Amino acid sequence: MPAPLTTNQISLWNASPKTNGIAAVVVLNGRYEFQIYDGNVRSFEDRRHNSHSFVGKDEQCDALASMTNLLTLENVLALARDKIHKLGMDEKELGLGEPVKLTQWRYDSNGVVHPLPLYAVRWNSDHVNCRHGTIGDRFNPYE
Description:
It is built from 2 helices and 7 strands. With 143 residues, the protein is α+β, with helices and mostly antiparallel strands. A 7-stranded mixed sheet has the order 1-2-3-4-7-6-5. 17% of the residues are buried. Residues 128-143 have low confidence and may be disordered.
């Protein structure tokens, strides 16, 4: 994504007033979704690689579960930080502390639980709980 961000990259903007500021959702290039609350980024998601792209689709989940996933919690955290940095921001600017929770999604197929290449990285914030969910972008976990 080219920096700096421009208004031409905004494909969705929805904001509503709240008692402590605004709540907003902004989508860049029809792909990167940010939820903002009280002036802080509450969540970030790559719509191309989120849970909605395959959860509830058993055939696709079975195919994902049968592949070798080379992602680790450590490189998922690095990928999440890299996404933030590529947008020209850093964790301190966003008021984020160290990640408090890194988790990998699981899929139950006929009683057998399989790990999926979908992770959640959650940071504590001074104001809100922030999360970043990703399975990767320009990084193929199966190579």
